[in-house]
């Protein structure tokens, strides 16, 4: 997977997850476009096929590349001459391992939202698969795409803040304050 600025075309990006109602849908699409190297062309955007198709339409993804599930997507994209170059996994955490394994086994590079997996055994399995296939596996820490984080990084690199001894960051998300044990 090339990341050079002289890439002759944008990398064809597929996305698993990130459908309608997804909190991170917009963030990951914006992060993928920051350097203008990616174009979203395919996806299994939701576990429900109708919602996946609706999300694809909203995102201007061709109907024949709006997949009902990630397994179908991996198989179909592998057979296309213009198949995806890389898949971004932006699903709920417990799904990351199965999706990543499926796409790595199908021969695709993977960009996975944190956390990589739920268990150490799953992480080791993916690491062995990446080693065996030689494919790229990137683990995103998507807040690095936020403008204030980018500005802070630049200020640190330029020495504008002096020697840093402690960094404390908070990112409150009120929508996460619902007590799930009461919500069912």
TrEMBL record:
<dbReference type="Pfam" id="PF01408">
    <property type="entry name" value="GFO_IDH_MocA"/>
</dbReference>
<feature type="domain" description="Gfo/Idh/MocA-like oxidoreductase N-terminal">
    <location>
        <begin position="12"/>
        <end position="138"/>
    </location>
</feature>
<dbReference type="InterPro" id="IPR000683">
    <property type="entry name" value="Gfo/Idh/MocA-like_OxRdtase_N"/>
</dbReference>
<dbReference type="GO" id="GO:0000166">
    <property type="term" value="F:nucleotide binding"/>
</dbReference>
<protein>
    <recommendedName>
        <fullName>Gfo/Idh/MocA-like oxidoreductase N-terminal domain-containing protein</fullName>
    </recommendedName>
</protein>
<dbReference type="InterPro" id="IPR051317">
    <property type="entry name" value="Gfo/Idh/MocA_oxidoreduct"/>
</dbReference>
<dbReference type="InterPro" id="IPR036291">
    <property type="entry name" value="NAD(P)-bd_dom_sf"/>
</dbReference>
């Amino acid at each position: 997977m090339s990341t050079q600025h002289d890439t002759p075309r944008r990398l064809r990006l597929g996305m698993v997850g990130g459908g309608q109602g997804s909190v991170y849908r917009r963030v990951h699409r914006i992060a993928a476009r920051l350097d203008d190297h990616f174009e979203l062309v395919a996806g299994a955007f939701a576990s429900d096929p109708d919602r996946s198709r609706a999300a694809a339409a909203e995102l201007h993804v061709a109907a024949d590349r709006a997949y009902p599930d990630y397994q179908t997507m991996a198989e179909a994209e592998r057979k296309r001459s213009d198949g995806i170059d890389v898949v971004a996994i932006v699903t709920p955490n417990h799904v990351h391992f199965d999706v990543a394994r499926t796409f790595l086994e199908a021969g695709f590079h993977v960009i996975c939202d944190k956390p990589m997996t739920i268990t150490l055994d799953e992480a080791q399995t993916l690491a062995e698969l990446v080693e065996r296939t030689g494919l790229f596996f990137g683990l995103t820490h998507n807040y690095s795409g936020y403008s204030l984080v980018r500005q802070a990084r630049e200020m640190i690199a330029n020495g504008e803040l002096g020697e840093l001894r402690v960094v404390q960051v908070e990112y409150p998300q009120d929508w996460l304050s619902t007590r799930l044990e009461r919500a069912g």
